[in-house]
Design a protein that fits this description.
about 230 residues; alpha+beta; Arc Repressor Mutant, subunit A; Beta-Lactamase; six-stranded antiparallel beta sheet; two-stranded antiparallel ribbon; 10 helices; 8 strands; about 50% helix; elongated; transcription; WH-like_DNA-bd_sf; DNA-binding
């Protein structure tokens, strides 16, 4: 039964799906799909959107946070708090979970005017924002092209992210808010997370990379070194 539940979660990692779509894609019997989907919904692993379609639920984000209490997250505290204090912006760490990016650590700026949804455990779409671009830019081609479907950025943007080593966005998650993100790399130079600065344009300016890219890259290097030492 667990393998069938995993099939449903795999389909929903690509986006919302109706009961009919889940049945057609998985090849499972409709009563089986309905029973599993309702059980997962009761566990908050699934929920439903306004159209009644099944979508990944908030419990997945919570589980990702718990699973993320490792060397990276433990080491993030002093690094991101120091980054916040130097820049005056909120410093956050995101991991990718399917089609979502999950905030696993946040050092909030005193002003607290960054995106309200980006608290620890928040699971946000991979379709907009600097963190989403960084988490997707170095993925395998198949994953990358699938992630671009319906995204607010294109392949050219991700090529630029890979070339320059950072991504920035203005008003992607909240009007008047700027964001800058760089990758955190683990073993084999694989991107395992994105570290970001978020805050009002008045703090980060309309070109946050020009002012803060070096600061953010230094923080990402510290986090990476904590993983592979």
């Amino acid at each position: 039964m667990l393998d069938k539940a995993d099939q449903l979660l795999g389909v929903l990692a690509r986006g919302p799906a109706s009961l009919r779509t889940l049945t057609e894609v998985t090849g499972l019997a409709r009563p089986t799909v309905h029973r599993l989907a309702v059980a997962l919904e009761n566990l908050r692993l699934l929920t439903r959107d306004r159209q009644g379609r099944f979508v990944l639920g908030p419990r997945l984000g919570e589980l990702a946070v718990e699973a993320g209490r490792d060397r990276l997250v433990i080491g993030a505290g002093p690094v991101l708090e120091a980054l916040r204090d130097r820049t005056g912006a909120s410093a956050r760490l995101y991991r990718r979970q399917g089609d979502l990016r999950v905030c696993v650590f946040s050092a909030e700026a005193a002003e607290r005017r960054g995106p309200a949804r980006s608290v620890v455990g928040a699971a946000l779409p991979m379709k907009v924002g600097a963190a989403a671009q960084v988490l997707l830019a170095w993925e395998d081609p198949d994953v990358l092209h699938q992630g671009l479907r319906g995204a607010g950025f294109g392949a050219a943007t991700l090529a630029g992210v890979r070339r320059q080593g950072w991504a920035q966005s203005l008003g992607a998650g909240e009007a008047g808010v700027a964001s800058l993100a760089v990758p955190v790399r683990g073993y084999g130079n694989r991107v395992v997370a994105a570290v970001t600065l978020d805050g009002p344009v008045a703090t980060l300016t309309r070109t946050p990379a020009r002012r803060f890219a070096n600061e953010l890259v230094d923080a990402a290097v510290q986090l990476s070194e904590g993983l592979i030492r």
